[in-house]
Structures are given as C-alpha cells and as structure tokens.
Amino acid sequence: MKYLSPEQLARFFASLEATHEVRLPILLPDGTRTLGHPGDGPLALHGGPLPGKPTAAFFPHEGGVFTAADGTVSTPPAPEKPLLVAGFTHRDLACLRFIDRFFADGWRDDIYFRRRQGAVIVGVSGHCGPGGSLIPCAGGDCDLELVADRARWLVVPYTVAGEAIVAGLPELAPDGALERIREESAALVDVNEDLIRRASELIRTDRVPDTFWAEIGDRCIACTGCNLACPTCTCFGVQDWRYAERVERSRMWDSCQLDGFMREASGHNPLGTEALRTRRRIHHKLAADPERWGEISCFICGRCDAVCPTGIGIFAVARELVARYGSF
Length: 328
Hints:
This protein has helices spanning 6-15, 90-104, 110-116, 160-165, 177-187, 191-204, 210-218, 225-229, 274-293, 303-307, 314-325; strands spanning 2-4, 21-27, 33-36, 62-69, 72-74, 83-88, 120-126, 144-149, 152-157, 236-242, 247-253. By secondary structure, it is α/β, with parallel strands linked by helices. The strands form 2 sheets. The protein has a 7-stranded mixed sheet. A 4-stranded antiparallel sheet has the order 5-4-11-10, with no helix packed on it.
C-alpha cells in the first residue's frame, strides 16, 4: 500500500496536471469549499462532503449541445486531457454510479460521457470529516481512495488507472491502520438509512395522503436548492441562443419544484400545484426510481436538508412522514 503525508498531497495532485484535467476540493476565501483546479485555492480534502453536487464535474450546471453556423453543426470537443476528480465520499460515489446508469440507459448521453469517459475518480474517507470525524471507507466504486489516518493519507488503488497514477508513491509497511479504519467504518450506523427505507415503504404502499403533500408544499418557496444540490438530480432544460451568424444550443439544470417544469404547450400542467411538485420530488427518489432501477436514488448525502431554507429536505420530510404514518 502507498501513502502520502499532508505536505506531499498538494504536490501529488499538481504533478497529475501534466496528464489530467484535475478537479479537487479547494477552500474559498469565504471559508466554503468547492471543486476547483489546483492553485485556485488551498487544498481542502478535510471537512466532509462538498456542499455542491460533485457529479457536476460530468453533468455541469450549463453545457453546450451544439453550434450551428453556415450550414455546419459542430459539437463541443471532449476535454484535451481526461478528468481526474477527487473528493467523492462513499455516498457521493454511489450517486455517481447511479447517474452513470441513468445516462447510459436507452440513448447513451454522449454529452455526459464526453467528460465521464476515461475519467479517474478519487474517493476520500477516514478521519477527514468535520472536526476529524470518520467518513466511512468506500472500498470501491472509484479508481483510488485516499484514507485519512490522522497524520497521513493511505492510498488504496482499485483499478489499473489508479495503480498507474500512484505507482511512484512511497510504500507503507503493513501496520494495520487501514484495517482499523475499515473496522470503524463497518461499525458506523446511520439512522437516516433506515428512515429513508421506511419512508419509501410507506410511499410505495400508498399510505401517505394528499393532505400531507399539501402541507409540505405550503412550506416550499421554490428556491430549487434541493434539486441544485442533489447529486442524483438529472433533469435539464434545452434552450437555443440565436446570434446573427450562429445558433448555440445548450442545456441547463431544471427543477421539478418550478411551476413550468411540466407545463405543456397547450397550457395544461400535470404538476400544477406545489403539493404535486413536492410529492413528485420525494416520490421520484423513494418510489419511482426503486421501481425502475431497483434502488432508492437518495443515497443519504444530506445536501438537500443542508440547503433547504424552510426545512423540507428529504430527511426532514421522511422523518415527519414516518412519524405520522408509520413507526420509527
């Protein structure tokens, strides 16, 4: 197994810029963290999950579809170098795995895979959560994992690409550190996992009345923060920008909490009330996706609860739902 000291970590990522387009957690001047380039700010792997959706590295807020000019249509080029994205927690990696399935289903989304294909994914785990708390080990779903062991980072590759990237790093003599962290990870219990499962069962068995969704919908101010922070939200709108010499088509994240999300050309709106839109947001993750994909598409990252200004993130709604209509 390989290892890196905190002092070596920044140099390690900087060395990868010769062969990869590197994105990693950095600290902004206001004290928040985001995905950025090496050199954009201090490296910030500690602190837990990033506030923004890490899957935006491959499905950005806005992205070009094509440009049409003089009878010729051109699509945006693939990145000159493959992406290397660091900072995914074990839950973020589950989200990425899910949207990989989504964008590959039926008509393969070449815009998404133009960035995703060949990308190297670096997970983070160990004692790098808020205040040094433990983030559970991923144990896969990434090319390599950086495991924080207090004063050093254990480097665990899982793929050929991961092995190649860490080939030159120093070897660590076996001392049981990784095994201890994995045992600690296995012992962790997240009550939200059972909460979301119970809420899913109640919704799928039609035990939640419309009045509940009306109450929750009354609290929604349609800020769309829940959708914009969720790593498994994949809805987007398409728009054309017309200029004198060209037309540019792009796509941008959309939100099921907006009144016009499903409004038809006729004026009919299948989601014409906030109650219906709020129900759809939760039902989609906890009932529709399990039916289609065989798994709940909320992977317990907690971002929607963290950003919602009125307290109706998925944990909060599930907790209220289970308290009223089930047992927890």
